[in-house]
């Protein structure tokens, strides 16, 4: 199949826009797959900041990095991404959000409309030129419709002079396929 999923496409965009030595953010560490991918892209001269509100997500991410013998400096931060500005000061090549809940964990601990938008505002302010902010947006769980709507309201109002904004999604699938929102700083 030539048409890739939202998740695969998010990784393709990261692979294009992130280079060795870059600083990047995983806004939702979860089981660590995006953090690992980012760490491999930026290498040992780069830096990954990885946020999650759940201790078990931070632990799972740390274990995944250790299993892969990652040498990249990775800051695993057990707080909400809405606090990213307290930690991230450098210009960013990329930030990725994989919204929703940790598979197999409490669905109540999912990302929320308000905190996601606050985090996006803060991280967009740190994007370097041609840096990308990506969101893989899931619907179908409690609160997800409001979150998707809040994200869309926010990104469709970003000034065209400052950002390119795209939406990518399969539109004939019955089981709520995730949507990718991709934002590039001009
Ligand atoms: C879909 S999972 C992320 C999957 C992850 N990117 C991976 O590769 O395995 C969503 C994660 O967001 C976390 N989360 C929820 N609210 C958050 C917040 N305000 N800040 C940071 N993480 C949050 C959840 O705890 C959950 O682990």
From TrEMBL:
InterPro entries: MnmM_MeTrfase, SAM-dependent_MTases_sf. CDD domains: AdoMet_MTases. Transmembrane segments: none annotated. Keywords: Methyltransferase, Transferase. It comes from Fructilactobacillus florum 8D. It comes from the Bacteria. One of its GO terms (molecular function) is methyltransferase activity. This is SAM-dependent methyltransferase, MraW methylase family. The lineage of its organism: Bacteria, Bacillati, Bacillota, Bacilli, Lactobacillales. Pfam families: rRNA_methylase. The keyword Methyltransferase applies. GO terms for biological process: methylation. Gene3D superfamilies: Vaccinia Virus protein VP39.
């Amino acid at each position: 199949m030539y048409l890739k999923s939202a998740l695969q496409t998010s990784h393709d965009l990261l692979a294009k826009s992130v280079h060795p030595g870059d600083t990047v953010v995983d806004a939702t560490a979860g089981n660590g797959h995006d953090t690992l991918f980012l760490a491999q892209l930026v290498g040992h001269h780069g830096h990954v900041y990885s946020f999650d509100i759940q201790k078990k997500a931070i632990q799972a991410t740390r274990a995944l990095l250790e299993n892969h013998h990652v040498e990249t400096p990775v800051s695993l931060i057990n707080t909400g991404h809405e606090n990213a500005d307290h930690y991230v000061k450098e210009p960013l090549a990329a930030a990725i959000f994989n919204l929703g809940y940790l598979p197999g964990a409490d669905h109540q601990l999912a990302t929320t409309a308000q905190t996601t938008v606050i985090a996006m505002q803060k991280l967009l302010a740190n994007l370097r030129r041609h840096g990308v902010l990506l969101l893989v947006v899931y619907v179908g769980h409690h609160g997800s419709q409001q979150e998707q709507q809040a994200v869309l309201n926010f990104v469709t109002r970003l000034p065209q002079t400052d950002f390119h904004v795209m939406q990518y999604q399969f539109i004939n699938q019955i089981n709520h396929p995730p949507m990718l929102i991709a934002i590039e700083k001009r």
